[in-house]
Amino acid sequence: MGVRLMVVDDHRLLAEALASALKLRGHRVLAAAAPAAGAADLVITRAPEVCLLGTATPAEPGMFDPVAKIKRERPQVAVLVLGPVPSPRGIAAAFAAGASGYVRHDERIEGVERAIMKARAGEAAVAPQLLQGAFSELLNPAAQPDDEGQRLLQMLTPREVEVLVRVADGEDTRLIAAGMGIAPSTARTHVQRVLMKLGVGSRLEAAALAARTGLLDRAGPVSQPETQGEP
């Protein structure tokens, strides 16, 4: 017996192609496409057995709010998230919001159909390796940005922190050396050590990482030039 389902995705072509393929396999597809903002309301109104809900960025905060809303208003609807290869945090967030499973965009139609049948039966519909990653993330949550910034800060010496702040301010080696009262070769060495400790390949990457993790906010103001240079 076919499943009464919906395919809801921002990309109309993808949604309609998947809906057509599922119709050919005997399922009753109620709708094919809708903007993300209206997805939850559409599903709540139609109340299918299973909903395939598309997402392009599974790790973005609030991305699974529609899933939570659907489950709150229509708990009997099984929601399958349809998206790209996710991070473990993305999988964990989908399940935390109430999703019954996660199906990759590049999954074969047979795999999609198996996930639909599992979801309707109340089972978790997700590839074993993705589920394993999700459980690992839930049991050992990754550090939040503030925690990550603190961890990175502890890896650097006070002098290296000052170098990083100056790098983030756009100073080149000459300006760093002048501002800190050290030789350019010493400044260059400090910069290389900072890049190595942060695990990045360029000054731009280092500055971006420091800004993203809040490290710069914790670093404080840079020091004044020294009266004598370092050897």
TrEMBL record:
All copies of domain Response regulatory, residue ranges: 4-120
Protein name, as recorded: Response regulator transcription factor
GO BP, one annotated term: regulation of DNA-templated transcription
GO molecular function: DNA binding
InterPro entries for this protein: CheY-like_superfamily (IPR011006), Sig_transdc_resp-reg_C-effctor (IPR016032), Sig_transdc_resp-reg_receiver (IPR001789), Tscrpt_reg_LuxR_C (IPR000792)
Family annotation (PROSITE patterns): HTH_LUXR_2, RESPONSE_REGULATORY
Swiss-Prot/TrEMBL keywords: DNA-binding, Transcription, Transcription regulation
Occurrences of domain HTH luxR-type (ranges): 149-214
Regions that span the bilayer: none
PANTHER family reported in the protein's UniProt record: DNA-BINDING TRANSCRIPTIONAL ACTIVATOR DEVR_DOSR (PTHR44688:SF16)
SMART domains linked: HTH_LUXR
Species the sequence originates in: Streptomyces chartreusis
